[in-house]
Amino acid sequence: MNGLSRLLAVVMAMAVTLVVNDSAPAAADTALAVNPTAWASISSKHPHRSHWVKYDPVGNEDDDASVGRTDAPREITRSFFELDLSAFTGKRVLRANFVLYVRESAACGPAVEMWETGAVSARTTWKRQPRWLRKVFTSEAGCGQKGWLISEAVKDAVARGDQAITFGLRSADERTAGRFLFRTTPFTGNIGPSMSVAYNTVPDVPTGLDVTSGDCYGPEAGPYLRTTTPSLRATLTDPDGGSGEILRGRFEWADAAGDTLGEAVSAELSSGHRHCVTLPEGHLTDGGSYTWRVRAENSYLVAGPDGYETFWDLGQWSPWAPQLHIDQVPPAAPPVISSTDFPENQPGGRVGLPGTFTLAPNGVSDVASYDYDFGPGVNPVRAGSDGTATVTFTPTHTFPQRLTARSVDRAGNRGPAVTYAFRATAAPPPDATGGGAG
Predict the structure, then answer these.
(1) What sign does the dihedral 54-58-62-66 (CA atoms) show?
(2) DSSP string, 43-100
(3) What single-letter DSSP state applies at residue 23?
(4) Tens-digit pLDDT profile for residues 274-288
(5) CB–CB of 40/58 below 8 Å?
(6) Neighbours of 163 (CB within 10 A)
């Protein structure tokens, strides 16, 4: 079995098992089988007769496409097939071939040329043939099914934005008798005439962009960070879907002026996974503002002289992400603590009654929250728009107590701590007054 025969055997297997389904495109390493939308046959014996037929995917007629020559009677016939290319708009065609089945398995004939031609219609006759634009492929003379490699013609048509392409078949030697009768409808075990196309689709624009202040598995952070080596993440998907679609993310970061500082490529994963890179040391500095973007890159295979080679289809870049600001300087001053319920260093309030404490930024402009601790453990509280926060405490005894607090800026840097001492007064004794029966 020669190389073409092996290829046709593979294509035939794919054509039989695949179902045309525009809503579920095949992955890059499989094929989508497309039946003709119409076909036509012309005869030199009947130069003004038209035979143009819309393709019936469930038909079982014995109407054949005739190609070749007979001498008794003397007649030359040619046939044309129109194929819909709309399913491949915006896609990269990798390989394409067209397969026909002969009416009888023992039928033999000459080599058959396939040409790209102009469109056919109900007015197509021998005298009104479409233009024969270019020869695409010549099949071998012999018996059995025929296949034609049409990759370049289909690639060019899709690149032009054509919604359909028409191929014409004629004998490679119309001076010599020999004719094929090709089936034009499905039959047992086969789907009839079909074009099998392997293709790849450009991946989607990445979604779900976010940043962590640590490794790739940390919680979302930003836009203020205290690290110069954050991790960038995004979800990458491919319209073709499936585990066979391998994607990688190309991340690019730039300074506030838009000057690119570097790029990194994520690990190769299948469609739908989160991709991540961690920025190396030396690219971001304290006090700087930065932005970043990412695009998906999808691998596909192309047959070369030394086997298959891997290439990458490049998706569109995501929009530039909101700026990141690097801040590694902690708040310079501790917060100011005050309370009217529990004055500092003196008795106040009551055991069992809640009181409030106010935490103020003490001149620090970027306080986002405070860490405070009454003894059992540290708790956070978010600062308001004026930088202050209020915490509530209910004392359970009259012993001296302490409130320790420190400011936390937008990047998570913690400033120096301050301690506030206070003591609650005892609760009043229960009311023992009352009267009895006189």
Answers:
(1) positive
(2) ESSSTT---EEE--TT-----EEEEEEEETTEEEEEEEEEEE-GGGTTEEEEEEEEEE
(3) T
(4) 999 999 999 999 999
(5) no
(6) 13
